[in-house]
Amino acid sequence: MVYLDNIAVLDIETTGLDRRKCAVRSVGIVSYTDKLNEFYKEYDLFDGAEIKEEGMLEAVYFHDDKKAKDPAKNPINVVYDVQSFLTVNKCNVIGGQNPSFDRDFVNAYAERYTLDFRIPIWMIDMHSVCMAYMLANGIEVPRKPGIGLFLSGDAIHEFTGLGAEPKPHNALNGARYEFESLCRIIYGKSVLPQFKDRPVPKLFIR
Predict the structure, then answer these.
(1) Across the 206 residues of the chain, what is the mean pLDDT of every consecutive 10-residue run?
(2) How many domains are there within the chain?
(3) Could you list the residue range(s) of the whole structural domain that residue 98 is in?
(4) pLDDT value, residue 54
(5) pTM
(6) Of 57, 92, 182, 204, which residue is least crowded by CB atoms under 10 Å?
(7) How far apart are CA 184 and CA 133, in angstroms?
(8) 204 occurs within a structural domain
(9) What is the CA radius of gyration of the chain?
(10) In CATH, what number is assigned to the domain containing residue 65?
(11) Is 200 inside a domain boundary?
(12) 27 has which bridge partners?
C-alpha cells in the first residue's frame, strides 16, 4: 500500500521561531510507500544560535562544553539527512501542521552552509486539509475569542480520534501524529501501528 504518495511528513524542534537566528534541535520524518519509513535525530547547535523561551528547550543542554561532539550531530547534517530521506523515499512534497515553518528552517540551514538543496515549495498542510473537510461537511470549526477560526494541532488530533499529542513535544512523535491524522481525514483509516487501538471516528470511515 501507498499512503500520501511522494509525501513525507516533516516535524522539527527548534530553539525558537526565527529561522535565521535559532537552531534545529531535532528532526522527525515519516513516509509510507509499501512500508513505513521513519527518521529521527538530534543535532548540536551552530555557534551563536539563539535559544528563545518559545523554543521550550533547556539552554543548559546546549552549553555543556565538556561533552564530546558527535560528528553525526553536526548542524550541517540537518540538511544532508532531510535530503537523503526525501531522495531515498522518493518524496518531493512535505506535509504536516504548518509545514512551511519546518521547510523554511531546513532551507535556512542550507543557505547558512551554502548547500544547493532546498525543500520544494509544494506542501500538504494538515491545518488546511482538516479545515476544508470541516467546511465541506458542515462541521463547526473551532474558534478563539478575539481571533476567529483557531484549529490547533491538538484540536485536529482530537477530531481524528488520536487525542492530544503527549508533551513534551518530540519531533518524530509529532510527525507520526500528523501523518496519522492526515491519513484518517484523507483515507478514512488508521495507518500507523501505534494508533491501531484508537478507533477512527465514524464520520471518516468510507
Answers:
(1) 95 95 97 96 95 58 55 96 98 97 98 98 97 97 92 97 94 98 98 97 94
(2) 1
(3) 2-195
(4) 63
(5) 0.93
(6) 92
(7) 11
(8) no
(9) 18
(10) 3.30.420.10
(11) no
(12) 12, 41
